[in-house]
Write a structure and sequence with these properties.
single chain, about 40% helix, alpha/beta, binds 2'-deoxy-thymidine-beta-L-rhamnose, 15 helices, 8-stranded mixed beta sheet
């Protein structure tokens, strides 16, 4: 009998919560052969990253996963053996009560946390927290960049698929987007970002670059700022605008797999949040990360923590170039101005590119999140069967 897993996901805003939950669900079903049900409260957001999703369906099968609309009141459902609440979402009371009744053995309940490179993550990974009222224990599972954390989401065959795509897939990819193959000295950049006061100065720097730059922007939150910089009323997918050396091209929002192809095809990727940042690292290409902004500026600590890991082993000038670029992009107080950041980044580009390849090779040391979750849950299930014969 396949072990039954339920993953619960609420979409707060943006696409990261469902992006991670969906990637995990696919991995658990496809690579581990588990019986996975994914409960999502916003199927429209889900459909943006995976257009095969029917936003009106209460229940559907997709990629070997049962997708359920999480509605209020909650549909009666027998609890699974392993229950994941993604990013601390609150499980429905009725479902929790069902979990508490299921004591032979009790379900393994895991809160999948946000990814961070901060050192405290390893200390908190795997810690139990007893429920205040019910006979249930919830475990905190922290993804991370070191082997003593929950590791990173990545498919077993990702490196192979990327290598095959880079070998022969890029011309067809550019063609499908209505673009020609890049010129020899051209830089192709993808831009996925939140609103950012540093954007106009970056665009100015690109427009003044001595070599051509094509910036590809999937439709999203940054579009109004781009339109303002271009002095146009609005921007639609498919539109292209040239300013100096910079050609801006708007792309439709793609599905998760096509977005990977974009990351694999560009020389530099601006990414944000959690999932696109990890995918850009697996793309083995240089990246600039915009952390999800938090009111207490906690995202600056996250940025510095990842920078510390990421720049390890990089020559000091190139490391400084990466640091300055990321810190300025995240609005950190002591960062250089954008024109200077860009000029230095450009001068260190070759070293940064080499490092991105090496970093991607090292990333695997943290372990694969889906494997680690399965090991964790199976060990807990075994020990529970043993103590509840
Ligand atoms: O959308 P995000 O800003 O999500 C954020 C973060 O995850 C943040 O940590 C969280 O707290 C907040 O949401 C609520 O960025 P992220 O994490 O990169 O997620 C984007 C997803 O969208 C990712 O799975 C990639 C996917 N995507 C596509 O499928 N197609 C596209 O064209 C693009 C640009 C992205």
């Amino acid at each position: 009998m396949r072990t039954r897993w339920d993953i619960f996901c609420t979409v707060i805003d943006n696409y990261g919560d469902i992006g991670v939950a969906w990637r995990l669900a696919r991995a658990l079903a496809g690579e581990h052969g588990l019986d996975v049900r994914l409960w999502v409260d916003d199927l429209h957001a889900f459909q943006r990253i995976w257009p095969a999703i029917d936003a009106g369906a209460d229940e559907q099968r997709c990629e070997g996963v049962t997708v359920r609309a999480w509605r209020t009141p909650f549909a009666a459902a027998e609890p699974a053996q392993v229950v994941i609440d993604a990013f601390g979402c609150t499980l429905p009371e009725a479902y929790l009560a069902g979990m508490a009744e299921q004591q032979q053995p009790p379900p393994v309940w895991i809160n999948l946390e946000y990814l961070s490179a901060e050192p405290w993550v390893a200390e908190h990974h795997g810690l139990p927290s007893p429920h205040p009222r019910l006979p249930l224990t919830r475990y905190f599972f922290f993804p991370g960049y070191t082997p003593d954390t929950g590791g990173l989401l990545v498919e077993a065959d990702l490196a192979e698929r990327r290598a095959a795509f880079v070998r022969s897939g890029t011309p067809a990819f550019w063609h499908a987007l209505g673009l020609e193959a890049p010129q020899a000295d051209e830089l192709r950049v993808s831009l996925f970002a939140y609103e950012n006061p540093a954007l106009p100065a970056l665009l100015d720097a690109w427009a003044a670059d001595p070599r051509p730059i094509t910036c590809l922007v999937p439709e999203g939150r940054i579009i109004p700022q781009l339109a303002a910089w271009l002095s146009v009323a609005g921007l639609q997918a498919g539109e292209t605008h040239q300013r100096g050396a910079l050609r801006l091209h708007i792309l439709p929002f793609m599905d998760q797999d096509a977005y990977d192809h974009l990351l694999w095809s560009c020389n530099l990727n601006f990414v944000r949040g959690e999932d696109s940042c990890v995918r850009a690292q697996w793309a083995a290409r240089p990246l600039v990360w915009q952390a999800y902004p938090q009111t207490d500026a906690a995202h600056w600590d996250k940025t510095d923590a990842l920078l510390t890991h990421y720049t390890e082993g990089l020559a000091s000038e190139a490391a400084q170039a990466v640091r300055d670029m990321w810190r300025h992009w995240n609005g950190m107080p002591d960062a250089e101005n954008m024109a200077a950041c860009w000029a230095v980044w450009r001068s260190q580009q070759a070293a940064i590119e080499q490092h991105a390849e090496a970093w991607c090779g090292r990333l695997g040391l943290a372990g694969r999140l889906a494997d680690k979750l399965v090991d964790f849950a199976e060990n807990k299930l075994k020990s529970r069967v043993f103590s509840n014969p």
